[in-house]
Amino acid sequence: MRFEGTYTALATPFREESGEPIDWDAFDALVDWQLSGKVTGLVPCGTTGESPTLSHEEHARVIERTVERVKGRAQVVAGTGSNSTLEAVEMSQHAERAGADAVMLVVPYYNKPSQAGLHRHFVRVAKSVRLPVVIYNIPGRSGVDLAPETLAAIAEAAPNVVATKEATGNVLRAQKIVQTMGERMTVLSGDDALTLAMIAVGARGVVSVTANVVPAEVTQATRLALEGRMKDARQAHHALLPLHEAMFLEPNPAPVKAALAMRGIGNEVVRSPMAPCGEATRQAIAAALAAWPRGGG
User: Fold this and answer.
1) Could you tell me the residue ranges of all domains in the chain?
2) Percent of residues in the chain assigned helix, strand, coil, to nearest 5
């Protein structure tokens, strides 16, 4: 399986009533919106999908629903990471049974494992499934940074670990992985605003928050960069920058849910302890969206 292009870190729409269950109509509309934008893949149950506040049953159903809705028209990379190795194994095995094309495993959060502990965790989970594995390194949320040397050792022990989503905010880190691991490890940008720079040093795409809102535009910008059409890629990237920046004015996914609501997909409900974004952020989002008049759904 080849990882290249735009992968949307799917939001999970909730209803305002009845204890905030998942709004499946809005979820289906969001998936269809992504497919119409010709994204390479969808990543349900990641950070943007509010996986920490999904019940186990909801988590399983979101993955199943994504696979059912996509029907092979895009890759489904299921978020199955956990700070419990056994739980990550169970969720990854479920994703495999559900028909996902790959799994994405976040660096375990809160526990603060050592590099040896990270090696044990990822190798054990990877060996529990036959699917390709994407490792998701986001030290700002997990509290631990997966060292490039540890990533290489994991890949040597578990051949199905084939890609990494680098959300370190560090282009030099992406460059180092590409330089030392070459074709063995595909690097995907985990920061929309850094996608162009990361592709310039060898990354092969992005796991994007902004693509929830403007999938076709993010897909096009990524494609231009991958094709080496850098002048056009810069123009497309710069046009998207105000929206990229607006998506992170407050903790993800509150801004992207506000943007989707403005597009007519779902509402702004996020699960506690997250909170909807403030009025100033809403105004910034609306201003950024003004450049993209297309409607949602």
Assistant:
1) 5-227
2) 50, 15, 35
Q: Which pLDDT band holds residue 19 (cuts at 50, 70, 90)?
A: low
Domain made up of 5-227: CATH architecture? Alpha-Beta Barrel (3.20)
In whole angstroms, give the CA distance from residue 84 to residue 122: 11
Tell me whether strands 5-9 and 102-106 are parallel, antiparallel or unpaired: unpaired
Quick: pLDDT tens for 135-148.
999 999 999 999 99
Whole-angstrom distance, CA of residue 98 vs CA of residue 67: 7
In the annotation, is 176 catalytic? no
Task: Give the pLDDT score at 296.
Answer: 42
**Residue 120 corresponds to which tokens in the numbers above?**
């044990």
Residues 6+ apart with CB under 8 A from 180: 148, 152
Residue 291 confidence (pLDDT): 83
CB-based contact 249:277 (threshold 8 Å): yes
Instruction: Please name which of 163, 168, 126, 175 lies closest in space to residue 146, comparing C-alpha atoms.
Output: 168
Task: Tell me which of 136, 176, 231, 257 is the catalytic residue.
Answer: 136
- Give buried/exposed letters for 108-133 (b at 16+ CB in 10 A, else e): bbebebebeebbebbbebbebbebbb
Query: In this structure, are residues 16 and 237 in contact, taking their beta carbons and an 8 Å threshold?
Result: no
Candidate list 127, 165, 176, 257, residue with the active-site label: 165
7 is catalytic: no
- Contact yes or no for 62/29 (Cβ under 8 A): no
| Three-class secondary structure of residue 173 per DSSP | helix
Tokens found for residue 5? 């292009």
pLDDT in tens, 180-205: 999 999 999 999 999 999 999 999 99
**How far, in Å, are 9, 20, 52, 165 from residue 270 at the CA level?**
15, 9, 12, 24
